[in-house]
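Task 17 of the worksheet. Students: predict the tertiary structure of the chain below and write it out as structure tokens. Keep your answer in the requested format; marks are given for formatting as well as content.
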Amino acid sequence: MKAINYFAVIAGTGNPESSISEISTYEEEYFKRSTLFKDGTIKPSQTTSQNLIEAVSECFWDMVKSSVKQESDSFRSRLYALEAEWRHSFPHMRELNRDELFERVRADVLDDAILFSGTSTKEWEQNLSQSLWKAIIPFVFREIYLKNALTSSKVGFQTQIDIVLQNWLDFNVTEQCIEVAKKVMIDKLKECFTRAHPQYTGNTYKDL
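Model answer:
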């Protein structure tokens, strides 16, 4: 690498017990008495560790500023490209600033929440009942009926069913009901959103 500048420094006084401040003082006094310094061979700005540190710091921050400027230019170019893409993709829609967009989205969210909360108890019960039954049908036929269908006696059959059902109630039913309820709520939210915003149906936006 090509050096930006050269510096003359003194790393010590010869005494391993010298402190940093003592070395710094010795260094300054040395260059003041130095023939190279007096003859102008070495400029004052090219001597002492302090000047070296300041030069390195200045060089470092110049590099940081240059990097930030490049990132800023790249961001501006990307922003311009996205804005141009938006204008060409949605020429019929007005551009909104941050505050306008926030107010519009807040109103839409509140409207959707009102529509969602308007779902009747009867509809919730029906949806939950149907979804829960669909979820447990495989368990009923595979784990309860098929595994115990060949039991020789009615009492034995009922006993096995009681055991399986009790295990299911103890370890699985709560989790399964929560998952079913979660799916029913999400489906209902999607239904309300689609009903309230038909213009977004089938678009390429990412799901929230």
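Marker's comment: The chain has two domains: 20-89, 100-200. The chain has a mean pLDDT of 80.
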